[in-house]
Amino acid sequence: MGLSRLVVLVSGNGTNLQAILDACADGTLSAQVVAVFSNKPEAYGLERARRAGVPAIAFSTREGESRQEYDRRLADSVAVYAPDYVILAGWMRILTTNFLLRFPNRVLNLHPALPGAFPGTHAIERAYAAWRRGEIDRSGVMVHLVPDEGVDTGPVLGVEEILFQDGELLEAFEARLHEVEHRLLVKTIKNLLNTKVHEVSS
Q1: Cα(158)–Cα(143) distance, rounded to whole angstroms?
Q2: CA–CA distance from 104 to each of 6, 83, 97, 166 (Å)?
Q3: How far apart are the two ends of the chain, measured CA to CA in Å?
Q4: What is the pLDDT of residues 149-195, one digit of tens each?
Q5: Would strands 4-10 and 85-88 be described as parallel, antiparallel, or unpaired?
Q6: What are the sequence ranges of the domains in the chain?
Q7: Vertex 159, ends 128 and 199: CA angle to 5°?
Q8: Residue-wise pLDDT tens digits, 124-157
Q9: Would the N or C end of the chain have less CB density within 10 A of its end CB?
Q10: CA–CA separation, 11 vs 87, rounded Å?
């Protein structure tokens, strides 16, 4: 069995990408990141990829291009790297079926909220505000498959809850949540790869 091939899509700083790169480097994951794509050329995630010796591809939208056209181009470019899984690690675009149908059951997304809660953007801030209003006492992180264009609604592969702490500032909560993200993402990918190995060998 060779190493599983991961393509990671990022839009920002890439701390979750870094967690994956580190886990591949230290053997926690029997995988390699074969390419990193970003829809934002200035994303620091691309620099993290370059430092790890991984192809870093800035993939901007073209003028007048539809989401479907962009996703078709992106799928073509990602397919060149023959990924076993495509990991959305802070990818801030909703992918259309033009992309998803090319990689069925192989696109994973990380979302900083519990299943069914706070889909879409600014989930951390929205959960924090709900806690301050006394509506919830916990939030969390989930990793799920992306089978269709639903926002953060796919089958859940991993989840971890976080209880809010009395008097906690948003920044402190966010820092705790990011730690859970890094850990849960790596753990979920590892479980997935192990399952795949068992399926191949059985």
Answers
A1: 5
A2: 14, 12, 10, 42
A3: 13
A4: 888 888 999 999 999 999 999 999 999 999 999 999 999 999 999 88
A5: parallel
A6: 4-201
A7: 160
A8: 999 999 999 999 999 999 999 999 988 888 899 9
A9: C
A10: 12
Triad 19, 201, 192: Cα angle to 5°: 25
Task: Enumerate the active-site residues.
Answer: 111
For residue 152, is it left (φ>0), alpha (ψ between -120 and 50) or beta?
left
Query: What's the token pair of residue 167?
Result: 């008097």
CA atoms within 13 A on the CB side of 193: 24
Q: Which two tokens stand for residue 6?
A: 């991961």
The full 3-state SS of 75-115, as one line of letters, equals: HHHHHCCCCCEEEECCCCCCCCHHHHCCCCCCEEEEECCCC
Beta bridge partners of 8: 36, 87
Which region, left, alpha or beta, applies to residue 82 given φ > 0 means left and ψ of -120 to 50 means alpha? left
| pTM score, whole prediction | 0.94
Tokens 């991993």 correspond to what residue? 158
Domain 4-201 fold = Rossmann fold (3.40.50)
